[in-house]
Amino acid sequence: MAIATAERPTATGIRTHNALAAGQLPRGSAWMVLAGGLIFSSTFFALLAAAGATAGFNIVGAVFVGTVLFDIVLYALSRIVEGPRRALDRLVTSLVSTAFIIALLPLISLLWTVLIGGLARFDVTFFTQSMRNIIGDGGGALHAVIGTLLITAMTTLISVPIGLLTSIYLVEYGRGALARAITFLVDVMTGIPSIVAGLFTFALFAMLFGPAVRNGFMGAIALSVLMIPVVVRSSEEILRLVPNELREASYALGVPKWLTILRIVLPTSIAGIVTGIMLAIARVIGETAPLLLVTGFTFSMNYNLFEDRMMTLPVFVYTQYTQAAGVSAQGSIDRAWAAALTLILIVMVLNLIGRLIAKVFAPRRGF
What we know:
It is a single chain. The chain is mainly α. It folds into two domains: 21-121, no CATH class; 142-319 and 326-361, MetI-like (MetI-like fold, Orthogonal Bundle). Strands 1-2 form a two-stranded antiparallel sheet. A hairpin with a 5-residue loop joins strand 1 (6-9) and strand 2. It has 14 helices and two strands. Helix 7 (194-209) packs across helix 8 and helix 13 (313-322) packs antiparallel against helix 14.
């Protein structure tokens, strides 16, 4: 049954629509109520922090109380204007939204804590200097940022071709015992602890070059052991989603199988593949244990992956936090938080780049 809308004449004779008189809340009212609840709760917790009742601004409490207020106020407004039936529907919808926001609270708390702790040293000096000859405050993490980018790039260069080709084999060619064995081994590798990957790489290079060798390439090999199974599993699932009708249409036109994969299957699934690769990179870029074993740490710049030790951001955070002592303890802790914030921002930028690549190279829909 259609709901009649109420209109009233104005001084100019033009009739205007009145949503409240029509028995319904205006469009976007739920968002306005949510924003109002978050603003009210944030103000309340800010006043508590200013009065010294809490140890700083409690972002988790502010978001939680704001969402609860959103549920109560929206239900009350909807019951007054729209009636009990529509109010109950809005209440259930708002409770689902509240459950989603509550699930995000740990992430919100993490981001807020890292942001507050990292802004103290998030300056130009932090990104233009290394820790060479630095004792106490000052210094930066340029050597760690460069090391992280180089090792992650080499890891991606090793892992993506191997993982993607393996997934293509499993989906397009793999049959029988060999395919089942590869799938089983990939599943086993997915659960390998990161420290085991580091020990494996250390043992391999110690056997070939001696126990004293440490370099960035060893870190890339260790991270590849962790990244390859993630790429394989994510790419395999995406490739299986490509409709068989597309392959059959290509075969019917006489296109060979390898060219069908190259020109039909991969372009169709490129968005999902890139997303899986970005998730795999985010999985390994923050690993600390294997890099402590095989790359070590240094206070100086090193652009050569195949020579000498190399610092990375996760190891930088670990060393700065564990070595915080004396009068310069706060400076080390500030550098650790700033490095953690930098690592989160790098992952965010990589994901944005991945989404942009997927959008550019994804097949066009429609005509």
